[in-house]
Specification:
With 355 residues, the chain is α/β, with parallel strands linked by helices. The protein contains 14 helices and eleven strands. It has helices at residues 14-27, 39-44, 46-52, 73-85, 100-112, 126-132, 170-187, 189-195, 203-223, 238-250, 259-277, 282-296, 303-312, 343-354, and strands at residues 4-5, 10-13, 33-38, 59-64, 93-98, 118-123, 137-142, 145-152, 157-160, 325-331, 334-340. Helix 6 (126-132) runs parallel beside helix 9 (203-223), helix 7 runs antiparallel to helix 8 and helix 10 crosses helix 13. The relative contact order is 0.10. Keywords: Cobalt, Lyase, Metal-binding, NAD, Nucleotide-binding, Zinc.
Amino acid sequence: MTSITTQDYTIHFNTDGYDKLNAFLKTSNYSKLFFLVDNNTHNHCLPHFLSQISTDKEIEIIEIEAGETHKNIDTCSGVWNALSELNADRKCLIINVGGGVVTDLGGFVASTFKRGVDFINVPTSLLAMVDASIGGKTGVDLGALKNQIGVFNTPKMIIVDTAYLNTLPQLEMRSGLAEMLKHGLIHNKLYWSRLEDLSKLTLEDLDDLIHESIIIKKDIVEQDPNENNLRKTLNFGHTLGHAIESYYLSRTDKPTLLHGDAVAIGMILATFISTQLTGFSEKENAMIKKVIKAIYGSVEISENDYAPIIELLKYDKKNEHGHINFVLLEAIGKPKIDCQVDNELIIKALNFYKE
């Protein structure tokens, strides 16, 4: 796959990525390399990564616990302390090898340690490849509230090696697919239609779709790096999706929802709301619900859950001046930002999801 060059860094693919990384390390003057992994990627991904690396620089490995519940300041403190104890200086390089939790948290740690050191992302999950590791967003959760603390900062490069997808459980693959479906709905009807019937996809098709998904996000981010306008469209499905994800994370009596599963629910809700507010086609709304539910099934959301989920909307990062702003669709590939939705319509959308 052809490398994708952004304004600030380049995304390299598969074996070519390691050639570029090794050349970069050879010509750089880094004092020491730190590889940040979680306990899953340490076992399943790091051996492959290390086998591709050629460097005479000193290497240290820092491991964190896997999972969204560990994407917090306490984990950051542990990594900052480990860096200090291992004599990291301002000329070190942090390489984040993992899914969205590792790349988000690792980017934030690098951006704040000694007021900022360089980092590289090596996403190992589908979600991180097409979304989390791209676009310069770094950060952590505040309790159950998603991504409340963070900064914009870009890596030196990104290496997308789709061989890592062979290590993923099916549920994690499904989670990442939600962001690809989102890219189709907000940007390109043809891309969406290619994802409608997954049974027909080959591994080569998946590589091509990942490449195209990254280009879609890259093009949007370059036009609006700090999310003042167009980049907000990437939050389609995330307003209610994040609220539902946070709510389920905070409840011991609820199953843990992966990010993509929550966004999938959020997309069904946002598409229904679009039929009520922006004239989106009811026929296409029904089709989108059918496609998404065929992939993700249904999550039980009771009427008692409605109020606490709606309450969590006030923490959404798109909110301005006390208004909760949604991304909706006028048509597939034609999003509309900064749409205000009343609670009555949100409840109607939740009931539609349950039907």
